[in-house]
Amino acid sequence: MTTPTRQVQNSYDCIVIGGALVGASVAYGLGKAGLKVAVLDGDDSAFRASRGNFGLVWVQNKGAGCPDYARLSLRASRLWSDYAEELRAISGVDPAYQRSGGLTICVTADELEFYRSLNARIEHEVGGPHVPAEFLDGKALRELMPAAAADLPGALYSPVDGICNPLALLRALHEAFRRVGVTYLGHHNVNRVFCRAPGEFIVETGGSQRCLTAGKVVFAAGLGNTRLVAEVGLEAPLTPLHGQIVVTERVGPFPCVPNGMLRPTAEGSLLIAHSEANVGFDTRVMAPAACAMVARCLRAFPGLRHIRVVRTWAALRVMTPDGLPIYDQSESCPGAFLVTCHSGVTLAPFHAGEIAGWIASGVRPEACRAFTADRFHV
Amino acid sequence: MFERISETRTLVTIYVDGRPVHARQGDTVAAALMSLKSPQVYRLSQVNGRPRAPYCMIGHCHECLVEIEGQANQQGCLVEVADGMRIRRQLGRAEVEI
To answer: Which of B47, B62, B97 sits opposite A252 (nearest CB)?
Structure first.
C-alpha cells in the first residue's frame, strides 16, 4: 500500500485578495463563471470594515458631482431583491434584505434645505428622473415614523433605499462561493504580489500555502490594498475613516423606516449611527463622538431615551480621496485588478455580477468607466 | 438541573413571576433562577421563541435576560438578588415601550 501524498494545489485562474464583502462578492461571481478561484483572507488583526457596518442598501444623497456613481448605486439597489433571493437559495442564509424605503431625517431647516438641493443637484446631473427622493414635512414624516419629534422640519424619503443584515450577507456570500467551488484560505495575510510573466502572478502569503500562482489577481483587501498594489502598477490611495455604531436592547414593535441615524434589525435591536473621524488606523470606540450621535438621535426620537444601550463598536471605512469606488485594471500588468469602495453592501450585486464578469472576460463594463484611479491625477 | 452544594449563606425570598421562592444572599439572579426546580424554562428567545438559558455567566452573552423590578432585558448574571426582589421571566419579545 502506498502512502497517499497530499497534492497541494496552489495554482488558480484567479486569486482574490480579501474575503470580506467586496472580495467575497467578486469571488462568488467568478466561481459562478466557472473560474478556479481562491480567496485569501486575513486574520483577526485585519480591520474588517465589513463586520462593522450599518447595512444600508442606499441610493439617496449619493453621487453629487459624479452622475455615474448615482446611476451605479441605483442600478445596484435594483439588483438587490433578486440577488438576496439568489444568495438565500444557494447558501441557505438569508441576508435579510428589505426594500423598506429610506429617510434622510433633518433636525434643522438648514439641513433640510441642504439635502433637498443635494438631491435636486444629483437628479439634474444624472440628466433625468433619478431616485424619486420625495420631500416630507414633519407631519408626513410622523405618519411614517410616529416616534419622530413633533418639531422636526422634515425629511427626504426614497422608496428604493433599504437595509440588509450585513453579517448575514457576509456569511451568505462565504457559503455561496464555497458552493460554486471557490477555495477559501483564511489566515493568509498577503505579503507581496508580483507579475513573473504576462498572465502569471505570484502571491506570497504568511499562511500555510506560502506561494500561490494565478493568471489573474483581484485586490479586494480594503485598506490593506494600498501597500500591495504598487508592484503590479496599480494605485490605491485609501485612508481610514472612523465610524461608530451603538446597539440598543431589543424592543417591542417600533415603526422605523431606516435612515442615516437609526435602523431596526430583524431581531428587535435598534442600531444608531453615524459618526466620522479621521483618527488613522484606530478602531477604539470614542465615547464623545458616540454620545454626540446618540444625542442627535434622541433629538429626532425623544421616546428612545428610555431604551438602553447594550454595546458600541467602531470600524474604519475604506475611503478614496473623492469617496467613490476604484475599479481598475493594471496597464503594466494586465490581469491585476483593483476593486475597492466604501459601499460594499449596496454595490454587492454589481461586484458579483458585472465586476466579476469584467475580470473573467476582460471586457470592462460601461457602468464603471468613471472609476479608474487616474482620475486622481487630472 | 443544578444542585446546591451545602450552603450556609442567608436565605432571601424573591418573587419569580409573582411566586415567592428562596435564594441565597450573594446569588446572582441567573444563578438563583437556575437553582430552582421550577420553572424549568429560564426564558424564551425574543427572536425565535425557543427556550434559552444563561450561558457565560460573566456578562458577555446576553442569554440570561430577565425582567428585574419592572426593568426588562437585565442581564441576570450581573445582578445580585435582594430580599423581596421581583423578577419576571421574559417569554418571548420584551415589551419595551418606546
So the answer is: B97
